[in-house]
Amino acid sequence: MEIRGSRITIRPLKLEDVFLMREWGSHENPLLEDYNFPPLNDKEIELWYRMKVGKIFNKYYSIRNENALLIGYLGIKDIKIFKRESTLGLVFDPNHINKGYGTEALDRFLDYYFTEMKMKKMILEVAEFNKRAYGVYEKIGFKTCGYYLDEFFDDKLDLSNPYYLKEKSSFVIKDEKIYNYIYKMVLHKKIFYELRQ
Q1: Alpha-carbon distance 76 to 47, whole Å?
Q2: What are the structural domains, with CATH classification, of the chain?
Q3: Residues 85-106 pLDDT 10s
C-alpha cells in the first residue's frame, strides 16, 4: 500500500523508519515538548515500534517528502470495524512543520481512508493551545464536537515562560496541578468530499 501526493508519500510504518526519527529536530516551545521524539536506545526503539504496530485495532504509517526524507508519521487507533471509525494521531519532525506537508498528508490519507478503507468517520483530539494543528484540522473539514480539561504532561512547566503566558487561557491550575483544554473533533466522509468539490 502506498499513497502519493504531489510532495508526500505515505506507507505502512517500518522499524527502520523509527530509527530515523532520532535525527528529527525538537520543538522550542515547551508546550509541544510531548511531540518531540524521545531519546531512545536501539532496544527501546524496537519496543516502541512493536507497541505501536502490534495492536490489531491500530495502524501506523510513515510520511516522506519529495526528497524521500522521513518527515512524520500518522496513526489510526481504536479502529471500530462496524462503526467504520477510528481516532487519528499525527506527528511531524519540527524541522518540517509550516510547509504545507501536514495538510497534504491529511488530505491524501483521508481520501484513502474514506474510499479504500471504506471508513465513515475520523475522530481526533487536539490541545486548545496548539492553534497551528487546530487550523490544519479545521481547514480539512474537522468540526469541534467536544471540549474537556485534561492533565498537562509536564507539571513542572515554567509558568513565566512566554509560550505559556501567550496561551494562559488554555490552562487551569488547581491543587498545584496543571490542566489544559482539549478539543475533540470529528470529520464525516460526506463533509470531507463536499469541501473538496
Answers
A1: 19
A2: 3-196 (3.40.630.30)
A3: 999 999 999 999 989 999 999 9
